[in-house]
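wait is this the right file?? whatever heres the structure
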């Protein structure tokens, strides 16, 4: 059963839909007003991801090996001067179509999430990105939801919207 956390029109650009299709998943959908090539680049090029990934905060991309088995690590610096490290490994990289990677936060080591993102060309200069996050337990999923994840995600996607507008 899918429990909607927000109920926007799914085909509107700039609106994030977050649902929980089952006890261990979070599904996120967003349409960007940019061609798939640009969205893919924004997800896979270190100098671009540093401009949007951390909610618009300063992000250091310490490592980003976009290939199967490759390691990624980003450190976000919030306005209060705190550093937050995130990292994982790429499990699948299908250029312009799909990224699958693990995700861990330094603040909760050992709690690994598997994120699968698909990039759909809508044929009108827009791209739909669907990300499914798979957690080990329902409690881990619920903890992520209660952490303010949706708000942080919206902030990151707003920064991505601004970046894509500059790129286009």
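ok assuming it is, sequence goes like this
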């Amino acid at each position: 059963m899918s429990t909607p956390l927000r109920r926007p029109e799914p085909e509107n650009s700039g609106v994030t839909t977050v649902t929980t299709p089952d006890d261990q998943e979070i599904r996120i959908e967003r349409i960007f007003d940019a061609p798939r090539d640009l969205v893919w680049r924004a997800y896979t090029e270190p100098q671009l991801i540093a401009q949007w990934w951390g909610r618009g905060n300063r992000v250091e991309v310490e490592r980003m090996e976009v290939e199967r088995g490759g390691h990624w690590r980003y450190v976000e610096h919030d306005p209060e001067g705190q550093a937050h490290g995130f990292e994982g490994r790429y499990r699948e990289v299908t250029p312009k179509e799909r990224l699958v990677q693990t995700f861990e936060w330094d603040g909760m080591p050992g709690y690994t999430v598997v994120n699968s993102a698909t990039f759909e060309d809508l044929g009108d200069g827009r791209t739909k990105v669907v990300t499914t996050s798979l957690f080990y337990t329902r409690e881990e999923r619920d903890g992520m939801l209660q952490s303010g994840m949706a708000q942080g995600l919206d902030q990151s996607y707003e920064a991505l919207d601004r970046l894509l507008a500059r790129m286009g």
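DSSP finds four helices and nine strands in the chain. so i think its the right one actually
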